[in-house]
Amino acid sequence: MAILRVNGEERQYDGDSSMPLLWYLRDELGLIGTKFGCGQALCGACTIHVDGTAMRGCQTTIADADGLSVTTIEGLAADGDHPLQIAWRELNVPQCGYCQSGQIMQAASLLKDTPQPTDEDIDSAMSGNICRCGTYPRIRAAIKQAAAATQGAKL
Ligand code: FES
Ligand code: FES
């Protein structure tokens, strides 16, 4: 049995705890904002937070998260009002949108650790999140806008 806190709610899972967390979140809890891309930790579409750190849900098992807090895009902020989500909307970052929840979760982890990231910090933190639509310039601009909006406050 595994016990996880998902978006603030305690969940008990009695099945095979070697199952990828992504399957559990999407198929059992219906949290479909987190996407499946490659299944091999190569694209970042499945990025979630485990105890506040960005992780790939396709390569994290339920056992890995046992006893820990898991946050998905649905739980990042009440009403979708995280500074990154606001900046994302204002700058119309998404194109098809498929990669974007993973991008935002990765960026949220970056800003939590580095509230005023340099271009190099952003490139380094975001390099594993692939966008086939090529929205990278808008992603970078939105991260900077969110950082400026919060003026280095701890997110
Ligand atoms: S689906 Fe997990 S990194 Fe691509
Ligand atoms: S917006 Fe289409 S893959 Fe990123």
UniProtKB/TrEMBL annotation:
It comes from the Bacteria. GO terms for molecular function: 2 iron, 2 sulfur cluster binding; metal ion binding; oxidoreductase activity. Gene3D superfamilies: 3.10.20.30, [2Fe-2S]-binding domain. InterPro entries: 2Fe-2S-bd (IPR002888), 2Fe-2S-bd_dom_sf (IPR036884), 2Fe-2S_ferredoxin-like_sf (IPR036010), 2Fe-2S_ferredoxin-type (IPR001041), 2Fe2S_fd_BS (IPR006058), Beta-grasp_dom_sf (IPR012675), Diverse_Oxidoreductases (IPR051452). Keywords: 2Fe-2S, Iron, Iron-sulfur, Metal-binding, Oxidoreductase. The keyword Nucleus does not apply. Residues 1-76 form the 2Fe-2S ferredoxin-type domain. The keyword Repeat does not apply. PROSITE patterns: 2FE2S_FER_1, 2FE2S_FER_2. CDD domains: fer2. This is (2Fe-2S)-binding protein. It comes from Phyllobacterium phragmitis.
